[in-house]
Write a structure and sequence with these properties.
The structure holds 2 protein chains of 2 kinds. By secondary structure, chain A is mainly alpha-helical. Chain A folds into 2 domains: 76 residues, Orthogonal Bundle (Non-ribosomal Peptide Synthetase Peptidyl Carrier Protein, Chain A), CATH 1.10.1200; 46 residues, no CATH class. Chain A has 5 helices and 2 strands. A two-stranded antiparallel ribbon of chain A has the order 1-2. Classes of the chains: A mainly alpha, B alpha+beta. The interface between A and B is medium-sized, with 16 and 16 residues.
């Protein structure tokens, strides 16, 4: 499956799960800040991606939420150096350039492209 | 007041699907509040009936060890009103389920008439992503709800 085909399916998933307009789903749109995703939406997105691509997404693989509640990795809303190492290891599909400049957790950019990267990696290793 | 919007289960297949019915009677106070002189079942309570049918179906998968709460209504399309004297049949099925929650879909019908198509997501709230803590006891599945399922199972025994 080409990246364009993956992107098109991911776009359909996000439009259905988040009730957003197709034109709002751009590669650099952030799921939470730009598309309004709330915590339950992430589970909805996982379910819909599993169905759309015929894959199984283990808990914490695409959104490793446990990192954010672990004080060794996040303190006072800032990602620790150990946290950054862990995030890079567990989320190779995320671009951490902004977080490397400023460790505030809000600089973790989880975008539409991030989801496409994740699916692309997942299909390659399937 | 008992917050139960289904009367009994008529079928129940573990982790797959469930069917429940609700008999609507003119004696129910809420029917008269929406449109005076024209009693109907509010759509919100049809949604609640589906949430109870699907919620018990999801809760039974873990033998009611999880606190299952309605987290998202993905779709609720209504095609017809329901009036006193009619019986609503709720049919719910589990589309996907994980340790964090479940997605369900189903229909509400009166006879063969489609009343509503509803998709609901449930969260197992002790597994929520924010790491929030909730009371130890299962405040979702109270005696009111568990008696619905046990009376279905008891009826099966009587029939045998």
């Amino acid at each position: 499956m080409t990246r364009e085909e993956i992107y098109s399916k991911v776009k359909d998933v996000l439009v259905d799960a988040l009730g957003v307009d197709e034109e709002d789903v751009k590669p650099d749109a952030r799921l939470r800040d730009d598309l309004g995703a709330e915590s339950i939406d992430f589970l909805d997105i996982v379910f819909r991606l599993e169905k759309a691509f015929g894959i199984k997404i283990p808990r914490g693989e695409m959104f490793p939420e446990d990192i954010f509640t672990n004080p060794a990795y996040v303190q006072d809303n800032k990602v620790t150096p150990e946290g950054l190492v862990e995030l890079k290891k567990r989320m190779p599909h995320v671009d951490f350039a902004a977080l490397e400049k400023d460790p505030n957790v809000n600089n973790i950019r989880f975008t539409v492209d991030t989801v496409v990267n994740y699916i692309e990696n997942k299909l390659k290793t399937a | 007041m008992r917050w139960i919007w289904i009367d009994k289960f008529t079928s129940f297949e573990h982790a797959v699907s469930a069917t429940a019915i609700k008999n609507v009677t003119l004696a129910e106070e809420h029917l008269h509040d929406l449109y005076p002189a024209f009693p109907i079942v509010p759509h919100s309570l049809i949604l609640e009936g589906m949430a109870q049918t699907a919620g018990i179906l999801v809760g039974e998968v873990s033998n009611f060890s999880q606190k299952v709460i309605l987290a998202k209504v993905g779709k609720a399309v209504f095609h017809r009103i329901v009036r006193p004297g009619e019986t609503i049949t709720f049919h719910a099925r589990i589309d996907q389920i994980s340790e964090q929650g479940a997605s369900t879909s189903g229909t509400a019908k009166v006879g063969e008439d489609l009343v509503a198509e509803i998709e609901i997501m449930f969260s197992h709230i002790d597994q929520n992503m924010a790491g929030m803590k909730f009371p130890e006891h299962n405040f979702v599945f109270t005696e009111q709800f568990s008696s619905l399922l046990s009376s279905y199972k008891d009826a099966l025994k009587v029939m045998l």
